[in-house]
């Protein structure tokens, strides 16, 4: 009684003030909230709903913990069984040791994951002396190293559960998706060794986790929204700092970000300022933050590797001079006549190119040996500096200065570098040659040389930026100079062009008359310097110009090194060499071309990966060897491939059916797909409303008013409000004269334009239809059988119903129709009316399509991570497919969940999920000996040859 009186009091208060600015918000008064304030509080400490909520949260936590423990078992069981360096452990284990020894190296991958491997080796007590070849010595705790690497892969399984929940999957389907990841044999076996794949897979998983969390994070620009946005940027930075395939993750996120920005254009509250704010926020989170993470990873890379090493030669001379122990600081400090030097181009290429004497001759001239540029150091790079016209050295300390004349004589072939004039003006005519003057005497055109006419005399022209060096003799590595040919008046230039045939992929060296000293690729340095007479005068002044070593001696060297990032000069230096190393890495990666003439049993083709045609032996296959086989769970692998291949085909088919039937939308009112306005309007509302606000926690109630009516949203309800109720009633009577009671009709009729183009998202009429779907709507919980009949009533005046309101423009009565809970949005025909039964069937068809929207990020992620490999020329292995496989496995779980809830009863859904768990577990256990390591004769392991191309028993795989 008290509750009914209180409710009536609130209703009367609303009726008595119809002119109040109720239309500004169209907010329904929360009567239950007011009633709850006047009721006595319950005696229990927590209401039942709160206890149930806590229980559900605890279930999620328990499932998360169980999945982590299950993942730990599948990744760690017998992880130290094989005490031998396996597959690419020989590379990445050695790279990790470089960070312990602080010696600079070069590799094709970014440094982050290799630094983490170095950290794992440091924690395991490795001293950096083992070269990761053969068997592990007793002092190397390789098991602890592998456990630390596997830990990153262990996190993928529980994170997958959260990702599935973010995508709107049910709890049991999310659990199933995580189980698929846990029982995927390929993901397990690749995680058991010291490789980069565990880090790559985790960071890829984190990208998907943070981005799906961002998309359901609620109100834009809220704290939660910013948190997930920044976490997405951090994850992108981590994955691209691990391997360059992380660029595919950036492409995936970028594609959906562009789509979201376009969706902003169709929102009812669209403004250019709001669009600009969204763009700037995403630019900060998804572009700036990943770049900062990438730079920081290279900062620590350069900081840790402060000693010269095998990879130093690939870096510019300025970088090498900053490495501790570089050989240039241990050589004679100035070049003199008689010195044996190596000449290298200064900034001639991402890697230094050195003048190289070749034994072979030019194809068009059999008198001259080739002179080219080569990036590898060898004896052919050594030249003796001689004065003009003579080989006699009168003074030991006769140093070479700016303007000095020199000749360069190969110490191997005892010939000088000549410029031979040709009649043509081609690059070949400007090449230099290695020639013996005695051989030139056979040429009738040859004349005895003088200083001015000799073809092997070059003039030194300094081009230093440091004026102090211009007054000194040539200093190895520090003095930049040009080589000017005195007779031909040309400058030596290092060309980037590669001579593929007779040049053996070396670079071209020419002498160009049309270029000036100081132009790009005209500067040279002395890279190597030997002079027995001057070595005794050497003052060894080896300096660490970057002063990196002192940062590693302190207890807080990490914090100290980070402070260097506040130095603008250092940041410029870091940017310069980060870009340089990135270019070198990508170039080296592209040079990993497979040799088709050689048979390699571990290589594979991208077209084989989705069908698991060519699994890979990871080590020796002898009877006594502990054998590991990179093979996936066939059930999960093949099923996920089918889902990824057929889902786009289904979407294309539905689109074709819609396009074919949309032309006939005015001829049939009974066909679901022939009512174009229904299909497109609801689909558009979903795209531009639910997709961007589906789990928003922003406003509890909001409303939008147009000249046709209003959409009002309150919690999980969407209310349509129409003006001009008389017109709707008359239209109803005209269309359905047999209907008697229009106040309780099952029809709704807004007077839309007869132009079908109004349903287009970009049309002006569509922009008048303003809607927004609200918070935390699980769109998968509604079935047609459970939908109650809608409460649809028309009221003639605001006094007849407590929820009526006034139009903000005309102050005419608004006719309100109570809607179903979202996403049961009414289908509205632009030509007339649509019955609720038809709308329900249409809603089911539209909902069928819209629910599949959740799988789009998984399918797009799969193809973005897979398709680029089809166009790569580099050597490839099966493990390159694993990031794509991860998306495919989650897509399989989503697909099973969707069709189970749509076509199966709750009991059969449970049976279906148990069935998938059983067959995935069975396949995992069947192939687990090859995952955990099998040390017996492989022929004893029967029933594993499911495809004839598998080389489990016999070596049948061929390229």
From TrEMBL:
It is a multi-pass membrane protein. It holds the Pfam family MIR. It catalyses: a di-trans,poly-cis-dolichyl beta-D-mannosyl phosphate + L-seryl-[protein] = 3-O-(alpha-D-mannosyl)-L-seryl-[protein] + a di-trans,poly-cis-dolichyl phosphate + H(+); a di-trans,poly-cis-dolichyl beta-D-mannosyl phosphate + L-threonyl-[protein] = 3-O-(alpha-D-mannosyl)-L-threonyl-[protein] + a di-trans,poly-cis-dolichyl phosphate + H(+). Residues 585-676, 852-950 form the Protein O-mannosyl-transferase C-terminal four TM domain. One of its GO terms (cellular component) is endoplasmic reticulum membrane. InterPro entries: ArnT-like_N, MIR_dom_sf, MIR_motif, PMT-like, PMT_4TMC. Pathway: Protein modification; protein glycosylation. Residues 1-23 are annotated as: Disordered. Residues 10-19 have a biased composition (Polar residues). Its EC number is 2.4.1.109. One of its GO terms (molecular function) is dolichyl-phosphate-mannose-protein mannosyltransferase activity. Residues 366-514 form the MIR domain. Residues 66-306 form the ArnT-like N-terminal domain. Keywords: Endoplasmic reticulum, Glycosyltransferase, Membrane, Repeat, Transferase, Transmembrane, Transmembrane helix. It is found in: Endoplasmic reticulum membrane. The chain crosses the membrane at residues 55-77, 144-163, 175-194, 200-218, 225-258, 278-306, 635-658, 854-872, 878-898, 910-932. Transfers mannose from Dol-P-mannose to Ser or Thr residues on proteins. Belongs to the glycosyltransferase 39 family. This is Dolichyl-phosphate-mannose--protein mannosyltransferase. It comes from Smittium culicis. The lineage of its organism: Eukaryota, Fungi, Fungi incertae sedis, Zoopagomycota, Kickxellomycotina.
